[in-house]
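Q: What changes when magnesium ion is included in the input?
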Amino acid sequence: MIQAFIFDLDGVITDTAKFHFIAWQKLAQRLGFDIDHEFNEKLKGVGRMDSLNLILQHGGISLTEAEKENEAARKNDEYVELIADMNASDLLPGAREALEAIHAAGLKTGLASASKNAPAILARLGISDLFDTVVDARFVINGKPDPEIFLKGAAQLNLSVTECIGIEDAVAGLQSIKDAGMYAIGIGDPAVLTLADTVIDGLHQFDLKHYI
Ligand code: G6P
Ligand code: MG
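A: The predicted holo structure follows.
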């Protein structure tokens, strides 16, 4: 019996990809090259240092570990400045309603995000109190596609994986949910999200009674 839903943040609850793109583009330009929106798709759900490594590889640049740390910190400072103006209007359609419907049915909610900025973003969106547990990149050793983050979410809710449903927009995130042994709801294009058990366009299409 389903007891909880564990959500990804970026691309499911809110769209931060556009802010990550601006900050990564600035970094690329500092180093003398450009990234485009198509390349940005590859960074969705990918942690900060892994993203930086992909970008450097794309630009054919190699940096020392210290330089990488420095560039990643600078990118994050820029990103933090961009998200400072986020508010409830940045919630994707249906996100708040889905979280509220789950709680109204007496079920639990969790967040499993690769972003270390996840708690700050939840606060800006005004939905921190709609999550019973939050697992972000600071608390896991292996990022998505490893199942660790969703396994930890279920454990923190004191539930087994078969009692939880994971919701994700990225292929790496769906891999993480499926390898954790959970039912997976994909958000996006069914032709791309083939790992998902079901795919919807967005949380505005989330209908709790389909899953419980
Ligand atoms: C999410 C985003 C990625 C981002 C990652 C780390 O998964 O989709 O684009 O790189 O979080 O975010 P952070 O805020 O910790 O740099
Ligand atoms: Mg995502």
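Observations recorded in class: Residues 17-82 form a domain with the DNA polymerase; domain 1 fold (CATH 1.10.150.240).
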